[in-house]
Amino acid sequence: MAIIPPLGAVGASPAVAFEPAVRPLTSPGSADEKDGVDFGTAVVNALENLQASHATTDRLAEAAATGDLRAVEDYMVMATETQLATQLTVAVRNRAVESFNEIMRMQV
Fold first, then answer.
1. Collapsing DSSP states into helix, strand and coil, what is residue 66?
2. Domain boundaries in the chain?
3. Which is one GO molecular function term here (predicted)?
């Protein structure tokens, strides 16, 4: 039977720092919560960015229609970006509603 030497004998430090891959849950209002953005704020920021994107697209469309826009491709790029952002937002919303309905159907 082979004898396994202690960690100190092979040159390794016996005190190995362990960093958990997943951070533990913290209570609301703790110091860790202040480091990041909470989910509600992230959703509100995303919706505000989408609204600003729509406003910019509308402004570029108006400029293109009146002939004030020199580079029409700017409007095309902005319209496509806004369309993709809207489709993503609708997909996330649909998935959230679907998940909510699934949770409500669970039997307790």
1. helix
2. 39-106
3. cytoskeletal motor activity
